[in-house]
Amino acid sequence: MHRYKSLNNLIGWLVFAIATLTYLITLEPTASYWDCGEFIACSYKLLVPHPPGAPTFLLLGRIFSLFSFGDVTKVAVLVNALSALSSSFTVLFLFWTITMLAKKLVLHRAVPNLEPNLEPTFGQTLLILGAGAVGALAFAFSDSFWFNAVEGEVYAMSSLCTAVVVWIMLKWENRAHKADSDKWLILIAYIIGLSIGVHLLNLLALPALGFIYYYRRTANPTLLGGILTLVVSMIIVGSILAGIIPGLPTIAGGFEVFFVNSVGLPFNWGVIIFVLLLLAIIYFGFRYSYRKGSQLVNTGMLVFVFILIGYSSYLIVPIRSGFNPTIDENKPDDVLSFVSYLKREQYGDRPLLYGPQFNAQPVDQLEGAPRYVREGDKYVIAERRLETIYRDEDKMLLPRLYSPQPDHIRYYQKWVDVQKDVKPTMGQNLSFLFRYQMGHMYWRYFLWNFVGRESDVQQAGVVWLASASTSELPVRIGGSKAHNNFLAIPLILGLVGLFFHSQRDGRNAFIVGLLFLFTGLAIVLYLNQPPIEPRERDYTFTGSTYAFAIWIGLGVIGLAELLRSVLKADTVRAGVALALGLLAPGIMAAQGWDDHDRSDRYSSVDSAKNLLNSLAPNAILFTNGDNDTFPLWYAQEVEGVRTDVRVAVLSYLNTDWYIEQMRRRAYKSQPLPISMKPQNYVQGTNDYLPFVENPAVQQVNLKEFVQLVDENSPLLQVQTQSGRSLLSFPTKKFFLPVDTAAVMRSGIIPAERRKQLVPRMEWDMGGGAIEKKNLVILDMLASNNWQRPIYFSSTVVPSDMMNLQPYFQLEGMAYRILPARDPNYDPRGNEGYVAKDLMFENMMKKFAFRNLNDPNVYYDENSLRFPANYREKFARLTEAYLAAGDKVKAKQVMDKAFTVMPDASIPYDYYTPQFVGPLVAVGERKKATDILDTMTNRAQQALAYYSTTNGSLFEMEIQTNLLTLQSVYQAAEQIKDQARAAKAVELLNQYYPRQ
C-alpha cells in the first residue's frame, strides 16, 4: 500500500506541476478586462468591490501582492498567479479524487470497508493513476477553466473550494469507521465558510456530499432515504444561502434598529447585543451536547461554528468601508447597509419559481422593506422599496419569459414563437428554458469544452466532426485562434467513463451525476438568464465540467475494460488505455494553447493609461462601467497613473453613496464640484425628474435650474398619480451663461478656436426625464465655472451625453466639454472638434500600444474593441490634418496607425475604410485599394456564412459587416473607384435589400 500511496502522491504533484507551468506561461501580465481590474485593485489595497464582494479572495490577493516588493507593475501578475495556483491545486485535488474513485472500480471495492489496505498490482496502479492524470489534465486544458486560470478573478479559487470539499468528503468516506472521522466534516464546514468569501458556487456541491454521507452511514439505502437525503441537503444549502449569509446580519440589523430607536442605546449596541446572544446560544448548544453525550449535536455545533469562522472573512467589508477607501461600492459600513450589500439589492431580482410573464400589467405597488440611514442619534427610514403587484392570471410557474424590456421581448421571439401582447403559454415558457437557457447557455458551453468551439465571437457555436473546414469559413471564424476542434474525443471518453462508472459503481456515479447537475443545469434554473447577455457566461459552469472530467478519467478504465478480450496482460492493457486516453488532454492542449496564451497581452491596461493620458490635469472623466472603468481603477490604484483625474462612473452616479464619495478628495483629485445638498440626492429623492412642459418657459438657465432643484422649489413640483410630489423640468431647452473674459484668461480655448467661444451654451436635453446622474453632471457644469476640465470617455453612449456634443473637443480618447461651439458640427457625423496638435501629442508620443503589432498575440473579441477605437481616433486626426492642408502630418498619423495595429494582428475593422481617402490623398492608392478589396472579400464571406447559419443570433455581426460594406462604398466613391463601389452596393443589395 505504501508503494501505491507514494506513486499516487508523486504523479499527483507531477500533474500539478504541468498545470502550474501551463498557467504561469500563459498568464496575463496585467489586469484583464471585465472585473479583473477591480479585483486586483481591491486586493492590493483591500478596498470594497461590487456586491457581494469576495473578501477571502481579496485577503489572499493582498498577501500575493506583497511579493511585488514595491514594484507596482508586478502586482497584477502576482494576483493573476493566485488564480493560476488555485487552478493547478484544483487539478491536483481532482487527480486524487479520480484516483480514489478509480481504485474502487479497479479493485472492485464499491464498499469502502472492504480491504482498505489492498495494494494494487503494477498494471492496476498504472490504470488508476493514468485515469487520474487523463481526467485531471483534461480539466486543466478545458476551455472555460483555463480561461479562469490566467486572470485575477474569483472563479478559479471557487473551483478550488469545490475540488477540496469533494476530495475531503471522499477522504472521510474511507475513514468514517474511525473515532475521529468527524474532523473531516468540520474541515469541510470551514472550507465552505471560506468559500462564501469567494463565490457561492461551492455550496452546490453539498447535495452530492450529502449522499456520500448517507451511503456511508446507511447499511441498506432506500429510495425514501435518498429522497430525504436530497431534501435535507437542499435545506442545508438554503440555510446557508438564506439563513447564515444574509440571515444573521439581517437579524443583527433588526436588533440594531430596535435597541437604538426604541431603547435609546448608542449606535452599534444592537449588533453587540446580538453577537453576545449568538455566542450564548453557541455556548448552550455545546453544553447541551456534552450533557447529553450527543456526538451528532456536538458535530453539528462545530460545523456551524466553523462555517461562521470561515464566513468571518466578510468582516473586512464593513471594517474597510468604515475608513472611506477610494473604491467603496455601496458604502457597507454599518450592519444595515452591509445586509443590502450581501443581498446584492442594487441588481434587483428575477422571478424563479412563480412570477409574472413579460406582458403582465402591474395593478398596484406596495411599500416593502424600509431602508434605514443614520440621522442624529436614530435610524430613520430613507425610503421604502416598492413591490410591484401583478394579477394572478398574469403569473405562471417557473417563469422564464419574464422581462418586459423591448429588446428582451424581441430576443425572446428569436427563440420562441411568442407575440408581444399575448400571454405566453407554459409550452412556450418551457421551450425558452430548454432551447435558450439550457441549450444555448449551458449545453453549448459544455460542448465548447469537450467537442470544440467555433470562434470567440459571441453566440459562437460548437465545432463538430462534420463541421465545415476552416478554409470554408470566414477568416474571423476559421482563422481565429479560438477555433478549436477536439474531434469530440474528450466527450466520447467521458461518456465511456459515465457508462462504465454507472455499471460498475452506481452509487458513486450517482454522486458525481448530482455534482454535475447541481453545478450545471441547477445553476441555469437559478440564474433564469435573460435572452441578452453582455458576454458569454461559460465561466459559471466550471463545476459541471469538473464533474464530467471525473468521467473522462474513469473513461480510461472503461477503455481498458473494452480491451480486455484483446489484451490479456494487465500492464499492456493499462498502457494502451492510458495512451488512448491521453489523446483527450493532448488535443485539448494543442488546440487551446494559442487562444489561452495571454502572456504578451497588455491591451486592457494600455487602453486605460491612454485614456487617462488623454486628459488635462485635474480632470473629471465620465465613463461607463466594467471594461470602460475597471482598468482605469487598476491603473490609478495600483500603478498610480494620473491620480489627479477623478473617474466618475455614470451608472453609479444614480446612487447617493457614490455621489457622496465623489464629494471627497481622492489622492491628488479634489472633490467634485457638486453644489446640491446631500438631502437632495439621497436615494428616493430626485431619482428622476420628468419632463412636464410649461409653455410659458421657453428656455431655462442651468444655474437657476440647479438652484431651484436644490431648494426643492414649488416652481418645479408636479404631482404623480399616487399623490407623491416630484420635481420636473419645464422645457428641454437649456442654456449656460459663459464668462468669456474669464474663460479667455484661463487659456483653455485653443488659439484656433477663440472665435468659436460662445457667451452662452445652448442645447436641447431631449428625452422624457433627467436621471440623477444627468442632474449631477448638470450641477457640475453649472458649479464648475470651467475650473476643472470635464470629459466624457469616447465610449460613453450618446444618450448619456445630453446633446452636449456641439461643445465637445476631441483630444485623444475622450471628449472635453468647452464653451466653444464647433461650427461644423453635424449630428449625423463625427462628434467633437479635433484639437489636432494636442491630439497628435497624445496619440503619437504619449500613448502605449504594446504588442498590438504582434500577430502571435491572441486578441479576443473584447480585446479588439479598444484597438478599433484607436483606429477611429487616428482616422479623425488624419482627416483633420488633411482638412488643414497638412499632408505630411496626415501621413505620419496613418503610418503610425498601420504600424502599431497592422491587419495581421488587429484585423481591419469598420473604421478602417476611413483611411482610404486620406491614403489616396497622400499618394498611396495601392494600399487604399488593397484595404477596400480585403474588407469587401471578408464582408462577403462573413455575410454568406451568417445568412445560412442561424443569422438571427448574429445580428450584430451581420450589421457590422453591412456597415463595413457601406463604409467601403463611401470610401470607394470618395476616390472615384466606381468598380469597387459597385461591388459593395451589389453586396449590400443582396444581403440588405431595399424595402
UniProtKB/TrEMBL annotation:
Key words of the record: Membrane, Transmembrane, Transmembrane helix
UniProt KW Membrane keyword: yes
InterPro entries: GT117_domain-containing, TMEM260-like
Domain of life: Bacteria
Transmembrane segments: 7-25, 53-70, 77-102, 122-142, 154-172, 184-215, 222-245, 265-284, 296-317, 486-502, 509-527, 539-560, 572-593
PANTHER family found in the cross-reference section: TRANSMEMBRANE PROTEIN 260
Name this protein carries in UniProt: DUF2723 domain-containing protein
